[in-house]
Amino acid sequence: MKITVCKDYAHLSKVMAQKVAELIRQKPNLVFCLPAGNSPIGMFKELVKMYEEGKVDFSRLRTFDMDEYVGCGPEDPHSFVYFFHHHFFDHVNINMDNVRYPDALADDLDAMCEKYAQDIVDAGGLDIAITGIGDDGHIAFNEPGEYLLPRTHVVKMDEMTRKQNASAFEDRKEGVPRYAITTGMEEHMKAKHYFVVCSGAHKAPLLKRLFESEKLDPQFPVSWLRMHPNVEFVIDEEAAKEIPKDVLAYFSK
């Protein structure tokens, strides 16, 4: 485990983009599990800039979306597929034949999830996965509960998560979907390089809880990443404020 503290969100975004670009240079056809949401927008902006400057080539990159809202197809502006096109795909030289995402409109969602999980296995597993932390400690849409599932599955979204995401669905009559598709904890734990991105003072209590306790708690899914063999927390100074200083010093080495 490693903690990298950046000055602010802009600095964090540049650092994260540089880490991703370097791994792509080392393995041009690596498998990237793409994160959506506010946290990675700055990183995608930096990656697009690096592409425009000729510093990184995405032509052989393979991607899997980390999660998706059930009922939101690729053309729906609320979908994560749409998000990735807007912030990343449409601005770089990615081969769309190498892009995979859950079919959130499938008639048999369980069968679709099973195939999606197998596609990840057949691709050799995830080389990079990046996530933020939800306000209830979820990663992707692995919500707090009595247990955590290993592979891609359908999940009923926690009401806290739906409330957290409500502002993005103000123009949608049905509001925030009640169900989502998410990659599972086994897929996350097997990712060769795992990054957690956190910015802002509102994330500080979550990081404090994570680093003050060594307990693996399914009610706090991000805690499972303490067992990940190669996880790095890339956070800004505001998010790092409540992490115990001795812990911060130890994992920043």
Automatic annotation (TrEMBL):
Q: Name one GO molecular function term.
A: glucosamine-6-phosphate deaminase activity
Output the superkingdom of the source species. Answer: Bacteria
Q: Known InterPro entries for this protein?
A: Glc/Gal-6P_isomerase, Glucosamine6P_isomerase, Glucosamine6P_isomerase_CS, NagB/RpiA_transferase-like
Q: Where is the signal peptide?
A: none
Q: Does the keyword Hydrolase apply?
A: yes
The UniProt record lists the keyword Transferase = no
Per UniProt, residues of the Glucosamine/galactosamine-6-phosphate isomerase domain are 11-226
CDD domains, A to Z: GlcN6P_deaminase
Top-tier EC class: hydrolase
Q: What keywords tag this UniProt record?
A: Carbohydrate metabolism, Hydrolase
According to the UniProt entry, what is the EC number of this protein? 3.5.99.6
Q: What is this protein called?
A: Glucosamine-6-phosphate deaminase
